Amino acid sequence: MSYFKNIDQIKYEGSHSQNPLAFKYYNPEEVINGQTMEELLRFAVSYWHTFTAEGTDPFGQGTMVRPYNHFSGMDLAKARVEASFEFFEKMNVPYFCFHDVDVAPEGSSLAETNKNLDVIVSMIKDYLKTSKTKLLWNTANMFSNPRWLHGAATAPNADVFAYAAAKVKKGLEVGKELGAENYVFWGGREGYETLLNTDMKLEQDNLARLFHMAIDYAKEIHFNAQFLIEPKPKEPTKHQYDFDVATGLAFLQKYDLADHFKFNIEANHATLAGHTFEHELCVARINGMLGSVDANQGDPLLGWDTDEFPTDLYSTTLAMYEILKNGGLGAGGLNFDAKVRRGSFEPEDLFYAHIAGMDSFAVGAKVAQKLLDDKVLEDFIDQRYSSYKEGIGLEIVEGKTDLRKLETYALGLDDIKNESGRQEQLKAIVNQYLLDVNGSK
To answer: What distance lies between CA 33 and its chain's CA centroid?
Structure first.
């Protein structure tokens, strides 16, 4: 059965194409710094936004028209698997991602839930035998069901912690069975609303305990996937424990977890934390912790996680600049944790949205690589910090001075001359490269 009958495989046609169902900039075979675009960008489709989202919002019911909406229960879950692999093939994407409840409905008990999951996992496994598309990562949804209203690993109820642990155990088993390259932990409700009823230390200790249990069990079953933490500062809880990369890194270091985890960084979460996307990527990169990316964007006029498809070329360029400086994403990828707008309700809109996102990151990759090749920013930064390459600056960097020596040096200074940071000029240069993405520069 075909679920997207009127859509052929999406192909690259170049920037002059007028075909809305074609890539203009994403050419999977084009080589960037020794890798094809497909190898470098490692695009993934998020199962939840693409196949299970209904288009609801706090003020309205679902709007999404999907060719499998007439099914229900396990029949609906099976139809979504069929539709998803048709979509993957037509979009020619190498990866997809899912939460457990995205692919299979919860039952009346954990045993029934696991039974439902086993049926769908077996079905997915059969598709993976012949599909080009593989599983980038899976995870357990521990935020939607009312049982998680006070959190999962950080819940004040030990029974909830035990249930969460069982979900993670099953998730690790599923990841191993389906060949997942990563496993993600997103603490959707791992935080608190008020300290008036919260033991923060116990909650964070328990979260670390669950992570250590997951590490131990993954070793036991020989599941060698990269573990990823996904920071988010707020929403749904007011104070989430994984606020941003820096906060998450401090947590991992405190609990001896840093050697076992990297970060899955989401653009919209960076916005909510008051950071830029590239800031979060840079903090992870310089600490050797950049693992994977949830590719989307937020709306600065809205104060919540809007999960829009990424179309801001300036943002994708600066993001790819960090990713390229990182040497790529290793086992990670660019997962479109993004949803079509509520008004974009037709099945074809799923294709238009993914084309827009993939083209946007393709442009970002091409421009970022040109900036790196020409050393435009690198040379400027190198010159800006040149005072640390000789004299007193070199002594500071090499640890060959102290406060007394620095005081003596400072007392001998007649004048301090700073140089302009040239921020506006550098932004103009980035714009020039962006506008010339298909030109001769």
So the answer is: 23
In angstroms, rounded to a whole number, what is the distance separating the alpha carbons of residues 239 and 105? 29
Q: Report the amino acid identity of residue 300.
A: P
Q: Quick check: 40 and 328 in contact, CB under 8 A?
A: yes
Q: CB of 106 within 8 A of CB of 151? A: no
Helix (H, G, I), strand (E, B) or coil at 240: strand
Report CA 24 to chain centroid distance, whole Å.
24
Q: What is the pLDDT of residue 205?
A: 98
What confidence score (pLDDT) does residue 439 get? 52
For residue range 231-282, list pLDDT tens digits in order: 999 889 999 999 999 999 999 999 999 999 999 999 999 999 999 999 999 9
pLDDT tens digits, 60-73: 999 999 999 999 99
Query: What is the per-residue pLDDT across 318-371, written as a single tens digit (0 to 9) for each?
Result: 999 999 999 999 999 999 999 999 999 999 999 999 999 999 999 999 999 999
Between 277-286 and 245-254, two packed helices, what is the crossing angle to 10 degrees? 30
Tokens (6 digits) for 151: 């959190």
Q: Is 226 helix (H, G, I), strand (E, B) or coil?
A: strand
Q: Which residues are catalytic?
A: 99, 102
The Cβ-side half-sphere exposure at 73, using a 13 Å CA radius, reads 4
The DSSP annotation for 152-211 comes to STT-S-HHHHHHHHHHHHHHHHHHHHHT-SEEEE--TT-EES-GGG--HHHHHHHHHHHH
Residue 440 has pLDDT above 80, yes or no: no
Find residue 191's DSSP bridge partners. 240
End-to-end CA distance of the chain: give it in Å, rounded: 47
Own/partner pairs, 301-307, CB within 8 angstroms, 24+ separation: 303/272, 304/235, 304/272, 305/232, 305/235, 305/268, 305/269, 305/272, 306/268, 307/49, 307/268, 307/337, 307/338, 307/339
Locus of tokens 């302009």: 420
* Local confidence band at 441 (pLDDT 50, 70, 90 cut-offs): very low
Amino acid at 181: E
pTM over 0.90: yes
CA nearest 313: which of 268, 344, 272, 358? 358
Angle, helices 73-91/110-128, rounded to nearest 10 degrees: 30
* Six-digit token string for 240: 């989430």
